[in-house]
Amino acid sequence: MSPPTPRLRRALLVLTTALAALLCALAPLPAAADSPADTDPADTARAAGAGPADGPARPAGGGADRDARPYVYLEGTPGTALQDRLAVTNSGRAPLTVRLRGDGRAGAWIGFAADTVTVPARTRAEVPLALTVPPDAVPGDASGEVVADDGDEEIRVPVRVRIGGPTLAALTVEDVEISGGTIRYALVNRGNAMLEPRLAVRADGMFGTLLDRPERPLPLELAPGRRVERTEPWPDAPALDAVTVRLRVTAPGGARDEAEASATYIPVAPAVGGGLLVLGGLALLGSGAYRRRRTRRGDPEPPGAESADDRQPTTETRPLVKAGPLVKAGADS
Predict the structure, then answer these.
(1) The Cα angle at residue 320 between residues 316 and 324, in degrees rounded to 5
(2) Reported pTM
(3) Residue scoring higher pLDDT (270 or 294)
(4) Is 282 in a helix, a strand, or coil?
(5) What are phi and psi of 269, to 5 degrees?
(6) Coil, strand or helix: which one is 49?
């Protein structure tokens, strides 16, 4: 029998590799190695990044659908006590101890039947809570959170309260500034109702409109009395222009406000070069005017200056000596 050719050997190698991969895929994985018997399902859920809806605390009375009550919602007038219940679930195999507290404006009004709750394994407990609206509370919306701390993580359950009485929706836009390609501003809720603001932006230059963004909702909820500082990008801001930016904000309930700011865009390098040229020209003009003024007034030349006569060469002359009368030798005796 003749030995296999190289092509046949490669084909057999590929076939053997494919067969081994198929056998490995069909073989069952040992459960004990990857999932120990003492693994806590709650720890597994936390490691997987389970959200608040899958955590140990949520509003009670949601039925089988965990999203039926994503937050605690209560309505009442100032001075009344409102009741609700919080469900604490322990899906592990060991007792779970959870500490409860309120956070935020409405969270500070909450009291629990027990601040610390221990729930047996595979059990769900419902904890009564009472929210007392202060007598001097302003009508409108208030928000807060119930915080459930099991020692490993904090689960936050939103709480929203509608306080009876006349509501006022008031919103202002303040502190508008333009810095390069960024527009900075602040939103303030001046009323007593929860607001979902909308923003429109417009910028006008010397030769027309540069930016015109229609009204759009902002990704935030503005609680009464809250102030939020935000920025609006403007990547295509002009290089040379004088602009006026106008911001208009609105919100349901009739809230509306406008504000504006101005800025001048000047290229840095041309501005510096032009400034130096202007300064040089002014210096030359000032020097020429000074010289002309001295000439008209006949001011003496400064020390060290030589006149035209001083610069001409001079000829040294000596005085003539006048001869006296001649004396004849041999005068009359």
Answers:
(1) 160
(2) 0.50
(3) 294
(4) helix
(5) -65, -50
(6) coil
